[in-house]
Amino acid sequence: MFGKVTIQIKLVEGDSAGTVTAFYMSSEGPNHNEFDFEFLGNTTGEPYLVQTNVYVNGVGNREQRMNLWFDPTKDFHSYSLLWNQRQVV
């Protein structure tokens, strides 16, 4: 019903196209609930992207992509998901 999870991630440097670094949480069953937090692969020089998605009762299509304003390959960074019955942050 509510919670928070935090993970520390440092991405691979250079050409990481084809690599997806992710963490997710999912319930079981065909009408599952799921939180996705994914770093998409990068061609050197391109911005790093984070893609998120939320599934509720087995339905997703809530993807959002964000450009990062920092270099996630230089150090470990903390990323959190915080949720309750009304919202996911």
How is this structure best described in words?
This is GH16 domain-containing protein. One of its GO terms (biological process) is carbohydrate metabolic process. It holds the Pfam family Glyco_hydro_16. It comes from Punica granatum (Pomegranate). Residues 1-89 form the GH16 domain. The protein is an all-beta fold. The protein has a single domain (3-88), classed as Sandwich (Jelly Rolls), CATH 2.60.120. The chain has no helices and six strands. It has strands spanning 3-9, 21-26, 34-40, 49-55, 64-67, 77-83. The strands form two sheets. A four-stranded antiparallel sheet has the order 2-3-4-5, with no helix packed on it. A hairpin with a 7-residue loop joins strand 2 and strand 3. It is elongated and about 40 Å long.
Which strand order spans the largest sheet, edge to edge or round the barrel? 2-3-4-5
Shape: elongated
Write the H/E string, N to C: EEEEEE
What is the count of structural domains?
1
- Total number of beta strands: 6
Question: What is the terminal separation in angstroms?
Answer: 14 Å
CATH architecture: Sandwich
Structural class designation: mainly beta
- CATH topology annotation: Jelly Rolls
What's the CATH class, please?
Mainly Beta
Largest sheet geometry = 4 strands, antiparallel
Strand content: 35-45%
Helix content: under 10%
Mean pLDDT: 87
GO molecular function, one term: hydrolase activity, hydrolyzing O-glycosyl compounds
Organism: Punica granatum
Protein name: GH16 domain-containing protein
Keywords: Glycosidase, Hydrolase
